[in-house]
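Aim 2, interim progress: modelling of the adenosine-5-diphosphoribose-bound target.
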Amino acid sequence: MSSIRNIVVLTGAGVSAESGIDTFRTEGGLWERYKPEDVATPEAFARDPDLVLAFYDMRRAAIQEKQPNAAHFALGRLDAEWPGELLIVTQNIDDLHERGGAKRMLHMHGQHLNAWCGACDVRSPWTGLLADRPPCPACGTRALRPDVVWFGEMPYRMDEIHAALRKADLFVSIGTSGAVYPAAGFVRGARDLGARTLELNLEPSQGSRWFHECRHGPATEVVAAWVEEMLAPER
Ligand code: APR
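Predicted structure of the complex, ligand included:
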């Protein structure tokens, strides 16, 4: 591992599954119970804002009852102890990475603990409900929406992500199905730029074939073991 200095980690819903947070596409996932086009697109919000706001109110409340798991804490330890560069890019809107100790990270699909004002564009910390149309803390207008990137919207901070991928010696994908772009394309980009690529997932994903190495198992086990390995003194 000595040649590895700069690491990019991509995480998806699977890293939070053992904390009791719904995934999307695995057995019993959110997209088995809701259609994305009904709750996770700008058109859905324009058509039926009550349904969309209630969906995210439900998720925001559920996430606040959950706790980080061993995979979040392992990544928090990696963040604290890894001497090289590290960027954790999460597709998740929960704050379990932060509560697990991660600092060098970003949310490319937004965050459930923010509300975004459609009138003044300000994003405010938010733990309550939006379905009752509360006033924006910044401008008072009742035009708040979840600060979540919906299908058809541009993920956040892509420039930073691509800059980190260009410098990466190692790209690790954790708990994501490889079903949604641009995140699903990061592995090929990193690989084309010379990075080693590793998948840590419960089962093979749609992108497994692009990884040099795949380790399958629950994130609380495979991520913790991988961080141990990365932080072990040079053998
Ligand atoms: N440990 C590791 N991996 C797991 C675990 C676990 N305990 N449980 C499930 N997984 C894996 C599944 O095998 C699956 O490959 O996590 C992945 C979850 O895939 P999805 O449910 O599709 O979630 P994700 O890949 O994060 O979805 C990407 O799609 O709907 C949009 O914006 C949403 O960010 C989300 C994006």
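The beta strands are 7-11, 86-90, 105-107, 110-117, 123-125, 144-148, 170-174, 196-201, 213-216. The chain has a mean pLDDT of 97.
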